[in-house]
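Review this today:
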Amino acid sequence: MTSVRAAVFTGLGQPLALERLELAAPGPGEVTVRVEASGLCHSDLHVLDGEWQERPPLVLGHEGCGVVEAVGDGVEGVTSGDRVVLSWYASCGRCRYCREGRPWICSDSNANASLMPDGGTRLRRADGTAVRSYLAVGSFGQRTVVPAQAAVPVPAALPAEVGALIGCAVATGVGAVLNTAAVQRGQSVVVIGCGGVGLSVVMGAALAEAEQVVAVDMHDAKLELAREVGATHAVRGGDAAASELRAILPGGADHVFEAIGLAPTIEWAIELLAPGGIATLVGMPPTGVRISLDPLELSVGGRTVLGCTYGSCIPARDFPHLAELALAGRLPVDRMVAERIGLGDLDRAFEQLRRGDGARRVLVHDD
């Protein structure tokens, strides 16, 4: 057993509890990772605010990067000392969807239950109480044990905070563009919401060489950042936004990406499509959200609505590629880091996330 310091979700309305937990050694097919950095994602906030139901106690954090410290029996492809980006959806590799090359919708993963493949957890309190790791990652802890397939080696030169963001926001946003929607050179793109995922969509659209990349957000600072990472136009959300977008794209957009997860903006994303256009839903809404749409407009205009989870990415393939793009300066992930924080700053940082202040804050663990 190893003692680790971690931020634990103990119940709705409660601040995150900084606790000392006991971490078991890695079992067969598992690895221990010393977490260097973890992004703060809106998915964590959904749990904190009760919009997604999770049973405490739970170590939050799923957007992580670190160094492998130990490997269990039968592990191949990753060794002690490797820098790895953590995947929050450890796929089974056996189900129909995994066999078809679509691990992002694996039907036999325990990750959504925040459990290891064997249905257990590797964290305990001193009194023996089991503590789950969110999405089988739990990157708000100094160390974690994860399934080996969830630890993807990347170049040692990759900064840890960049690697952390690749593990969720960047893979989701860039993957939504390149994998899910398959944006083509010269097409037009509108991105609604410029948090970490939305900015990653902007970067992906720039990589795809879209002709117009229009960023929409309520915050001027985020719009300026969107311009810095690849947007050709920036539109402030509000009453005048629709007319501004019509002036930029009179016939509508080839692609609209909704990166917030709110019913009104999802409906708006569909309304903004040109004939033949594609709306890709990237933002994660609270449980139970419903939308209204006009099916006739979809049908006669040949429009498409796509659901997107994890950017339709294959972590073992996509994480190293995204890392190389970041190291080459083609993916300015570092520009999204609004602040580097410690464990004691998490509650304050999540309050800033609720207000939409900044793109991504990154927890940097001291060991």
Notes: The radius of gyration is 20 Å. The CA atoms of residues 34 and 319 lie 18 Å apart. The chain is about 25% helix and 25% strand. Residues 160-180 form the longest helix (21 residues).
